[in-house]
Design goal:
The complex is a heterodimer of chains A (about 240) and B (about 325). With about 240 residues, chain A is mainly alpha-helical. Chain A has twelve helices and no strands. The chains are: A mainly alpha (about 240), B alpha/beta (about 325). At the A-B interface, helix 1 and helix 4 of A face helix 2, strand 6 and helix 3 of B.
Chain lengths: ~240, ~325
Amino acid sequence: MRFAELAIRNFKEMWRDPISIGLEIGIPAGFLVIFWALGRSLGDESFLTPTMLVPGIAVFGFAFLLMFSAVVLARDRESALLSRLLVAPLKPRDFIFSYSLPYIPLVILQILLCFGMGALLGLEALGNAGLAFLILLVMGICCVELGMILGLLFNVNQVSGVGSVIITLVALLGGIWIDLGAIGGVFYRIGNALPFVHAINGARAVMVYGAGFSGIATDFYWVLGYTLVFFALGTFLFRRRMVG
Amino acid sequence: MSYGTNYNRFAIQTFSLSRKFGDLVAVDGIDLSIKEGELFSLLGPNGAGKTTAIKMLCCLLRPSSGTATVLGRDIHEDPMAVKQIMDVSPQETAIAEHLNAWENLRLIGGIRGLTKEEVKKRSEELLEMVGLAKRAKEQVRKFSGGMKRRLSIAMALVSDPQVLFLDEPTLGLDPQSRRGIWEHIVELKGKKTILLTTHYLEEADALADRIAIIDEGKIVALGTPQELKDSISDMQVMVVKAKNLPPDAIEGLKEIYPEVKATEDGIEIRAKELSFYEIVDYLRPRGVVIQSMSLKQPTLDDIFLHLTGKELRE
């Protein structure tokens, strides 16, 4: 469990950056209120309702978390701290766990915060909230693993640029506030190839229509598949960095 | 974890160790044998291949050809065993900025498998040694450059490694902080095998048991500081302090004495035979006002210039 010490350090590094943590927690909560208010103002009862918005806003928040996790790793790489750590007798999987695990409490906090805010605004979940929580949790981990890849490939400045592109992609192709099916065409196909819309649709199917696991299995495994691929790729990149 | 120093055994050996980056040969077939307990310095300018060599020895970079052993463990075949017995203080100040000094030491001790009790004991000793005991609970982002560098060296010592790599440990520090770091390194002499890279001549001269001068990836000279100086003992160095020294006068003088170096307040001329009158007779008619001329002992700087034709700080 040598990696635990590094995981503790990464946890502290994250929580001792109050501005970033504030943004991570504040962005989903803020967006949920803004879009809920917008929905009320527009009289929209299809997409901009709390029940429909909560999964989308949670995933939107993960996109910011992705950038946050990537920046921490890229900063360690630039400061040569990562080189010092890589000289220790740890394995690549130890590193990927050490850098990923500290974000899971934040993923859980973001989901709970979205659920809590949604409940205050009138969320009505028909299905098992635990199942919706599960697919969102996997999506959050998926984003953290993608952050590991970006942090290992790009420097801090580049991460900000690439992260912004991903946030925009999630916003446009995640089906958060528009029905991707109604747009159709290439946007629909690209959006469906990515994991974000599957996590959102899976959680919505549970909360809005009361779907069980069989009803969201395809979406769940799609997101899980991406998570495993990103984890494997991150492990590979750590290994490559250890023996450059 | 401490060990008995055996000066007859080699702690680090490299065998035609090379590394290429595309067409660039960063390290070009170096062969070194560093004894246990020795403080060995790789001295060379930026880009000479010092850090690349250290990265290969730390198993962070795969050699293009050749290999090396650290206390008998091959860096190719058993990198995990190599990592168990050494640690490094990288060129950059590699510390966790949001942690305090104590937590930084605990981090390295933890990932190197020390128990909590061991980490506590070692950390207390090391913080005392590097003079940071009173500021152990402060986040290190508030530390000065010298304090960060001292902590960085302490971090490399937490696990009591048998072999220590110090990559440019005083780079960018002011002279006072540099001397402070030197004192800590001197304390380690004989207790650990240390490979120190530097481009500061005075650092290698003051600390190292032996020095290898590296240039463009190749070892161009190797020996104790005194042996290196003796190797050009038949060479004379004339220090000329002068005013109104035009560049064409220096260039012209190079036709008589090929090794002429411009300094802040004049020139230095190196040659096996120097003629005081010849230099004066050459410079005066060109309007140069000579303030003083003196002979000095060759330094490592002179050796480097002699061997490579360039200055160490280029």
